[in-house]
């Protein structure tokens, strides 16, 4: 099929090339023949004038009697028999004799040419009018002008009109015959060219194609190489070299695949070992954190219980010891509750939450808390759509942790005034990683003017049990729990901070555009922030 299609294309191209080439030859031949014939006509016209110069001067000076009229008729008859369609003789004293065509435009042109010939004393050749030529419109008439000399002086001028239509008709008849020969020659030469190309090129190419189609992976037979020094010989040699390289590459590929399979098995084993080791390390870190955070209050509780056993302990001391014991037990309870928040799935029972209403409610409750006494809380909630699919209680916990952390950080600077916390919201779009679709997101930013977070601590603030607060003032679980809650809702949480310039915590949550029941402030539980809520985003100054 490939060869057949190639043969057809080459045949068409050869035919077109032959036709165009012979057409150009025809055009050149016709134009050359026309030019030569017109030159001969011009030469013949000047010869007629030279031959009939004496007769023309005699006709110009003749009277109008019958004898002279017969002589004039004889002269003009000779011109007509020679193919002259018209003539005009102009004397020195404005005598005029006209013959043949009598249109005013042609007479004006003849008079003009006679005058020019008399002034220049030279023969001239010009064209007048247009008619259909060989391929397009050409000149209709040939005007031959010449001065008439007598005793070495110019006494008159003559212009004769020689029509070219007969020449064009003859050439067009020849052209028709040449077109017939052109088509016949194109067909014959095309068939001869295709036959030669098929014998020399197409048949060997067909054999190469059949050999390539019959070639199998384990076939050792190569392409036959002819001894001729041509492109087919080079092509066969190149194909044989390609097959040898393919065979060598197959062996290398098999060896590489085997090596990769072995390396892949070893890599899987190493990955399993790394995962196992990472799990053990995570369990170890978690166990160490739990042991540290719970071990300390348990030790304190045990100490207070030993003091309560002493008989000389007063009632006021017992009451104090019991209160401190309760505080340490509450601390242990807080740690256990936060650990449960980490392990609890966050996508159960999700509803559409109005975030702006939730933030406004939290701000109203916190404004009356002692922690916010010297801190200005400003809410710039400008997002067009604040609806997100989440759990209202967990989202409330996230916002509460961030606000309390920021307030602790601002308070740690020791400033009595100028403390400020700003909460901003806006709607943004973000291109999804694996598609070209745009996702609408609710962007929440919590900005404070606290001491900022040191560069070395930013990368660890979302790790469990990581805290920069003094022992006993934080568990290091608040931000870790908030981070996992936001991730469970399909969002992201990031931090940007610089030492001494404050901190901004950013939350991105997918905007919900559907129509379901919206959870607002009324559906959420009343907020009464406990005084021991963990705040780990902002470290206090050491």
Overall description:
There is one protein chain. The protein is built from 11 helices and 13 strands. It is α+β, with helices and mostly antiparallel strands. It folds into 3 domains: 2-176, Beta-Lactamase, CATH 3.30.450.20; 220-343, Helix Hairpins (Orthogonal Bundle); 347-519, Histidine kinase-like ATPase, C-terminal domain (Heat Shock Protein 90), CATH 3.30.565.
Annotate the secondary structure layout.
Elements: H1 2-51, H2 53-61, H3 66-81, E1 86-91, E2 96-100, H4 104-120, E3 124-132, E4 137-150, E5 153-163, H5 165-214, H6 231-309, H7 315-343, E6 351-354, H8 355-366, E7 375-381, E8 387-390, H9 392-412, E9 419-431, E10 438-448, H10 455-458, H11 478-488, E11 492-497, E12 503-510, E13 518-519
Parallel strand pairs: 6-13, 7-9
Antiparallel strand pairs: 1-2, 1-5, 3-4, 4-5, 6-8, 9-10, 10-12, 11-12
Helix pairs in contact: 1-2, 1-5, 6-7, 7-11, 9-11
Q: Do you know the CATH architecture of the largest domain?
A: 2-Layer Sandwich
Distance between the termini: 85 Å
Number of discrete helical segments? 11
What's the alpha carbon Rg, rounded to whole Å? 56 Å
Q: By CATH's scheme, which homologous superfamily of the largest domain applies?
A: PAS domain
What portion of residues is helical?
40-55%
Shape: elongated
Can you tell me the residue ranges where pLDDT is under 50 for at least 5 consecutive residues? 516-542
Give the gist of this structure.
The protein is α+β, with helices and mostly antiparallel strands. The protein has helices at 2-51, 53-61, 66-81, 104-120, 165-214, 231-309, 315-343, 355-366, 392-412, 455-458, 478-488, and strands at 86-91, 96-100, 124-132, 137-150, 153-163, 351-354, 375-381, 387-390, 419-431, 438-448, 492-497, 503-510, 518-519.
């Amino acid at each position: 099929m490939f060869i057949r299609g190639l043969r057809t294309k080459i045949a068409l191209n050869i035919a077109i090339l032959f036709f165009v080439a012979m057409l150009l030859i025809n055009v050149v031949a016709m134009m050359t023949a026309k030019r030569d014939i017109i030159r001969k006509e011009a030469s013949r016209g000047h010869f007629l004038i030279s031959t009939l110069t004496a007769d023309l001067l005699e006709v110009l000076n003749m009277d109008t009697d019958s004898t002279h009229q017969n002589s004039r008729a004889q002269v003009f008859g000779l011109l007509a028999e020679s193919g002259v369609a018209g003539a005009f003789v102009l004397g020195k004293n404005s005598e005029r004799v006209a013959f043949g065509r009598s249109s005013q435009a042609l007479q004006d042109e003849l008079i003009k040419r006679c005058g020019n010939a008399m002034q220049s004393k030279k023969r001239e050749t010009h064209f007048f009018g247009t008619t259909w030529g060989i391929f397009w419109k050409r000149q209709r008439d040939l005007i031959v002008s010449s001065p008439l000399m007598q005793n070495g002086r110019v006494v008159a001028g003559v212009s004769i009109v020689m029509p070219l239509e007969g020449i064009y008709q003859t050439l067009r008849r020849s052209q028709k015959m040449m077109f017939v020969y052109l088509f016949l020659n194109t067909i014959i030469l095309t068939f001869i060219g295709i036959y030669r190309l098929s014998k020399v090129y197409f048949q060997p190419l067909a054999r190469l194609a059949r050999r390539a189609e019959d070639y199998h992976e384990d076939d050792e037979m190569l392409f036959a190489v002819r001894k001729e020094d041509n492109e087919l010989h080079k092509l066969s040699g190149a194909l044989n070299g390609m097959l040898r390289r393919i065979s060598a590459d197959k062996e290398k590929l098999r060896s590489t695949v085997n090596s990769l399979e072995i390396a892949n098995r070893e890599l899987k084993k190493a990955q399993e070992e790394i995962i196992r080791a990472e799990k053990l390390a995570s369990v170890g870190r978690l166990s160490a954190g739990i042991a540290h955070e719970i071990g300390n209050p348990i030790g304190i509780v045990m100490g207070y219980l030993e003091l309560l056993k002493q008989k000389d302990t007063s009632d006021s001391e017992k009451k104090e010891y019991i209160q401190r014991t309760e505080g340490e037990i509450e601390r242990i309870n807080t740690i256990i509750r936060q650990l449960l928040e980490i392990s609890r799935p966050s996508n159960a029972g999700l509803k559409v939450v109005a975030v702006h209403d939730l933030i406004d409610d939290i701000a109203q409750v916190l404004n009356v808390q002692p922690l916010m006494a010297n801190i200005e809380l400003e809410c710039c909630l400008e997002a067009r759509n604040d609806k997100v699919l989440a759990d209202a209680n967990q989202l409330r916990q996230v916002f509460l942790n961030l606000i309390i952390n920021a307030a602790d950080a601002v308070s740690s600077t020791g400033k009595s005034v100028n403390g400020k916390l700003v909460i901003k919201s806006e709607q943004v779009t973000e291109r999804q990683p694996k598609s070209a679709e745009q996702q609408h997101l609710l962007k929440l930013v919590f900005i404070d003017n606290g001491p900022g977070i040191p560069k070395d601590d930013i990368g660890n603030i979302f790790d469990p049990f990581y805290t920069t607060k003094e022992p006993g003032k934080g568990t290091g679980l608040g931000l870790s729990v908030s981070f996992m809650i936001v991730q469970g809702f399909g969002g992201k949480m990031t931090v940007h901070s610089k030492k001494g310039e404050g901190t901004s915590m950013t939350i991105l949550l997918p905007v919900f555009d559907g129509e379901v029941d919206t959870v607002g402030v009324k559906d959420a539980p009343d907020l009464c922030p406990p005084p021991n809520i963990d705040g780990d985003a902002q470290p206090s100054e050491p």
